[in-house]
């Protein structure tokens, strides 16, 4: 007997902090004005997506001491945006990335519990750590923690937040109208936590939220990150979106769950994925090439090369050959606050490999950055893209995808109108919401009053 078809989970990432967005497109809109967020969220809800996802930028990135102006010009506060979106949506989950390195458990738990109440149980928290001192300069806790300490703090941060979420053992505290005192006062959010990173005691002032706790996401890919997710996350925001890499990641993370007394279905694997649609596969392929060249302008290509070379390359022609000088591996890095800096741990080896690729293919600087950078994950007609997504999910390369359109805020519309109906026809994606909370959408258990 064949196993039943898995149901696909879909979400939408508002792409405000990466170079996926084609800023030069006439349809590109503001990444600050609320109308952009509202349009994006309403489209996702119309398509019956599980949730909307917001990344976080805690400092404007710099290159060569100047604001890096090629991909983002600011980032509004996550909680403010999600709270506003709660008022213009009814079922869509609201997921925010909040840093565990520079915040405090009481404050973050209070904000997420409040958001869960405001949205009637649709809040989710993507727990991340911060790796760079550059971002840390914005906070009292300057600098940064070594990786093992970052995850140690993150684990205790999440555990402490869960203690706060669970500290209310009833739905509400009732006031005695005659005496003015509270009944069942002993249940009203009392907590005591003593640990390596946090030593706090008091009463949590937000009653237990509709989901018990917000859904917990994790985005780290290191071994420590995978263990952190297996121990306490509900879903992983993964970057492994090819079939082979997705299956390997899926298998590795799911097998870790048993050590924590968890079932495979208690942790969802949701890679980020971009897409380009056309009337035919050939048309989509041509459009994808055009989109990629729009995403990587000549200026962007030079800036990307500077991540590796750690030199000012503004004098080079992006349509010309790669620099014949070697990367500077001794000086302070000219890029600040960019995750790409960590991706090239051996700049000299990377430069050699790139020169060989460019020579073999007669690539310019811009060609190289386009060909070696992130590619669109799903390219084709609506039928092709729907089939590919379903194949990935049914073959355990993912439980679904967090889609990142290249146009904001309208880029999700075509997927909602042309791909989602095909998935619904195949019986692998909901025709309507069956529950009210994000945990309902994701098929996750609701935590009990006293434990996970």
TrEMBL record:
Keywords: Flavoprotein, FMN, Monooxygenase, Oxidoreductase. InterPro entries: Diverse_substr_monoxygenases, Luciferase-like_dom, Luciferase-like_sf, NTA_MOA. It comes from the Bacteria. Its EC number is 1.14.-.-. GO terms for molecular function: monooxygenase activity. Gene3D superfamilies: Luciferase-like domain. Residues 24-395 form the Luciferase-like domain. It is an enzyme of class 1 (oxidoreductase). The keyword Flavoprotein applies. Pfam families: Bac_luciferase. Belongs to the NtaA/SnaA/DszA monooxygenase family. This is NtaA/DmoA family FMN-dependent monooxygenase. It comes from Streptomyces neyagawaensis.
């Amino acid at each position: 007997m064949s196993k039943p078809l898995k149901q696909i989970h879909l979400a939408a990432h508002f792409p405000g902090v990466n170079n996926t967005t084609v800023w030069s497109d006439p349809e590109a809109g503001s990444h600050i004005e609320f109308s952009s967020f509202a349009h994006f969220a309403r489209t996702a809800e119309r398509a019956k997506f599980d949730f909307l996802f917001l990344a976080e930028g805690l400092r404007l990135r710099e290159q060569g001491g100047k604001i890096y102006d090629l991909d983002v010009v600011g980032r509004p506060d996550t909680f403010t945006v999600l709270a506003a979106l709660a008022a213009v949506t009814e079922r869509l989950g609201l997921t925010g990335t909040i840093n565990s390195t520079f915040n405090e458990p009481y404050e973050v738990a209070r904000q997420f519990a409040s958001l869960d109440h405001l949205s009637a149980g649709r809040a989710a928290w993507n727990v991340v750590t911060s790796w760079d001192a550059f971002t840390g300069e914005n906070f009292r806790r300057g600098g940064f923690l070594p990786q093992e300490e970052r995850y140690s703090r993150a684990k205790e941060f999440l555990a402490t937040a869960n203690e706060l979420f669970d500290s209310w053992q009833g739905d509400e505290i009732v006031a005695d109208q005659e005496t003015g005192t509270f009944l069942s006062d002993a249940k009203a959010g009392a907590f005591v936590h003593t640990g390596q990173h946090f030593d706090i005691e008091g009463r949590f002032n937000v009653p237990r939220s509709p989901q018990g706790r917000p859904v917990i996401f994790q985005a780290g890919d290191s071994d420590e990150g995978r263990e952190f997710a297996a121990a306490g996350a509900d879903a992983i925001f993964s970057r492994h979106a090819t079939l082979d890499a997705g299956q390997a990641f899926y298998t590795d993370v799911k097998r870790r769950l048993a050590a924590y007394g968890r079932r495979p279905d208690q942790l969802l694997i949701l890679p980020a994925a971009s897409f380009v649609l056309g009337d035919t596969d050939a048309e989509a392929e041509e459009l994808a090439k055009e989109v990629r060249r729009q995403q990587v302008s000549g200026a962007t290509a030079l800036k990307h090369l500077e991540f590796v070379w750690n030199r000012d390359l503004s004098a080079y022609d992006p349509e010309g050959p790669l620099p014949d000088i070697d990367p500077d591996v001794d000086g302070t890095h000219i890029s600040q606050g960019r995750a790409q800096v960590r991706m090239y741990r051996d700049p000299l080896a990377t430069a050699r490999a790139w020169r060989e690729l460019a020579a073999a293919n007669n690539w310019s600087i811009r060609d190289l950055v386009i060909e070696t950078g992130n590619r669109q994950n799903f390219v084709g007609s609506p039928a092709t893209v729907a089939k590919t997504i379903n194949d990935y999910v049914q073959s355990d390369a993912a439980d679904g995808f967090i889609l990142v359109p290249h146009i904001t805020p309208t880029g999700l519309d075509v997927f909602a109108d042309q791909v989602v109906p095909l998935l619904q026809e195949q019986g692998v994606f909901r025709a309507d919401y069956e529950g009210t909370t994000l945990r309902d959408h994701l098929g996750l258990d609701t935590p009990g009053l006293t434990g996970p």
